[in-house]
Amino acid sequence: MFHRESGVFKTSYRGDMALYPLPIAKWTVGIIAAIFIVVAPLALDDYYLSILNLIMIACVGAIGLNILVGYTGQISIGHAAFMSVGAYTAANLATKLGWDFWLTLPAGGLMAAAIGALVGVPSLRIKGLYLAIATLAGQLIIEWTINHVPAISGGTQASIEVPKPALFGYELKSQGELYGFLLFFTIIAIVGALNLVRSRIGRAFVAIRDQDIAAEIIGISIFRYKLLAFAISSFYAGVTGVLYTYYLGIANYEQFQLVTSIDYLAMIIIGGLGSILGSIFGAVFITLLPTFLRNFMESFGGLFFTDAELATVVPYLRLTVFGLLIIFFLVVEPEGLNRLWRNIRNYFRVWPFSY
Amino acid sequence: MDFDFTFFALLMTNGVLIGLMYSLIALGFVLVYKATDAINFAQGEFVMMAGYLAVLGAFGVNFWLGLIVSVLGMAAFGFVLERVMLRPLIGRPVVAVIMATIGLAAVLRGIWPMLVGVDTYNITLPISDEPIELGPLLLQPVQLFGAGVALAFLAGFTWFFLKSRMGVAMRAVADNQQVAMAMGINVERYFALAWAMAGLVAALGGVVWSSMLGVDTHLALIGLKVFPVVILGGLDSIVGAIVGGLIIGVVESVAAGYLDPYVGGGTKDFAPYVLMILVLMFKPYGIFGKRKIERV
Is the pLDDT of residue A236 over 90? Predict the structure, then answer.
């Protein structure tokens, strides 16, 4: 946030890499946490809570993808498929074996991690474009498999209804209760990722991204770390799928198609590659975009379209704006919203001097 | 089960014809990759846009006028696109170009239905639609026409790259931009030219495919079939695009013919990708591709 850094001296690398860069940051984080834990559920009504819930689910997925794409430099166009793996694993365990969410959630994540590592195996031989195409194939094959194997998908509709998550026998049904449920896991995901990227593993990921051959020479096992990146990233994706399934109350492959993979890629590009905060910005932005566009078109769209047309136009408008944003950020501001935020912060940090 | 030769021959011919039509789409992809090292994930959307242009350019009245509008429009679109979107991305990681074309795909898939509505338009080729009988086989003239166009273009581009001055210059640019610049080749011009050519090929592919499937946003889905074709054939090889297209077409058709009854349909959308994954694992540069993948 807008802290002045005068009087803070870091004398060790440990100090420089600390989770809280400044002592006062603990207060900032505490205040933000208090707002989300205490104020938000009391102050907001169900509609806004439902939006917040969707944002939190997207956050987990975007952070996971950013670990792979932003930190390790391996592209994946198949992340929605890993989410569906998590979702269907959890749904099957919950309905057939009656497991609770604190068992199905890690189970879904681990299953997705296993499949993700498998799809990541080609990354050991191929890079860039080829990897993009390989993960695309992974996405299409997983989609097809789930859709065509009744043992996984639960019949012709390829969807499984899931009971709401229950805590000590109490079902979490309302938006407010689900908010608490999702917030708990989102915080774990964020803190986990923040700690991961400043650990030995995170530094190895960045080394592989920046120069893989150099990384190999200084003793980083590329084989192990690339697979680990795929596994961790897919674990996050699997958890996202499980959370989404519990939130909706139904596991359905239509929620996890290629379009969703691209949505998540857009989140991290617009938010900022290689940044946890950027993933959160991107998740907020992309989740709010359809809502914003719908409101905008309801106010001004009447000038160009009739009401009947509006209903069909909005999804296409979303797709167009979304594509334009991806191109705009790639061409103009490759570091995304995170960079814009840093610029604003730096301006205030040294105010009234320009540097 | 008895081996039914007629059924097999039918699947094979069908596969070959469809495969050649895939090759036509894949050609646009290969051209861009060969010349600029950029990957076009929006090839299917190019084809869709070409189809819309062909239908609307002539208001559905005259086929030839529509074709001309489509060819000119797509070539101009490719040219402008290179200027506005791809040139700023030169020198950036490959992921950036991939994502930019994915973004472009989203824009095209969003903007066309907004402009012209979600109806399916039809193109009728100026040829009869009576199936041609060849022994026990029935051939669709549309498919024969498409295969013919594909073959003509593939031959034409092979000649272009091997013999013509521009084609040689383009290969030089693809091989090493700095050296090409030092030899006095205008690299930027050839980048623009490559995209314009990709647009032109997409226009022909668009007309051929939309006469078979009709024009709406679903037409863009054939873009996904391009990847198995080019990976199998090799990303920078025109011959590879033909052979890859034929193999994928045949595999798809035969697999669908024999497996669909057991798995309940959809083999067509599945088999090419399994084949592609296998190729990526064992021979990632494809059958005819240049071996320049870095091993890590």
Answer: yes
Q: How does pLDDT run along chain B (296 residues), one tens digit per residue? A: 556 777 788 888 888 888 888 888 888 888 888 777 778 888 888 888 888 888 877 666 677 787 888 888 888 998 888 888 888 887 777 778 888 888 899 898 888 888 777 777 777 766 666 677 766 667 777 778 888 888 888 888 888 888 888 888 888 887 777 888 898 888 888 888 888 888 888 888 888 888 777 777 788 888 888 888 888 888 878 888 888 888 988 888 888 878 777 766 667 777 888 888 888 877 777 777 766 655 44
Distances (CA, A) of B221 to A39, A253, A317, A332, B209: 46, 18, 19, 29, 11
Q: How close B205 gets to chain A, by Cα (Å)? A: 22
Tens digits of per-residue pLDDT, B1-24? 556 777 788 888 888 888 888 888
Contact assessment for residue A142 and residue A78, using Cβ atoms and an 8 Å cutoff: yes
* Cross-chain Cβ contact A124/B98 below 8 Å: no
Given the structure tokens 């080829």, which residue do they identify? A130
User: What whole-number distance in Å separates Cα of residue B216 and Cα of residue B255?
Assistant: 27
User: Which of A227, A293, A327 best tests the B interface by mutation, with the highest count of B CBs <10 A?
Assistant: A327
Q: What is the pLDDT of residues A314-325, one digit of tens each?
A: 788 888 888 899
Element (DSSP H or E) covering residue A170? strand A170-171
Query: What is the amino acid identity at position B98?
Result: I
pLDDT at B162: 85
Chain B residues with CB under 8 Å of A133 CB are 227, 231, 276, 280
Task: Write down the domain spans for chain A.
Answer: 44-257
Number of domains in chain B: 1
The answer to whether the Cβ–Cβ distance between B294 and A130 falls below 8 Å is: no
In this prediction, residue A98 carries a pLDDT of 79
Q: ipTM value, please give it.
A: 0.81
Evaluated on CA atoms A222, A227, A228, A230, the torsion sign reads positive
Residue B151 domain-assigned (yes or no): yes
Element (H, E) at A242: helix A222-248
Nearest Cα to Cα of residue B202 among B181, B180, B219: B219
Nearest to A316 among B93, B110, B269 (CB): B110
pLDDT at B296: 43
Other CB atoms within a 10 A radius of the CB of residue A342 amount to 16
Cβ–Cβ gap A327/B107 under 8 Å: yes
Quote the Cα angle for A159-A163-A165, to 5°: 125
CB-based contacts of B157-160 (< 8 A; 24+ apart in sequence): B157/B27, B157/B31, B157/B238, B158/B238, B158/B239
Average pLDDT, rounded, for chain A: 84
| Domain of B54, in residue numbers | 12-124+138-223
The answer to whether residue B249 sits within a structural domain is: no
Note if the bond before B261 is cis, omega within 30 degrees.
no
Comparing C-alpha atoms, which of B47, B49, B53 is closest to residue B26?
B47
Confirm whether B201 is domain-assigned: yes
pLDDT tier at A202, thresholds 50, 70, 90: very high
> For residue A192, what pLDDT is reported?
92
Query: Alpha-carbon distance B233 to B76, whole Å?
Result: 28
Residue A54, burial from CB neighbour count under 10 angstroms (0-12, 13-18, 19+): middle
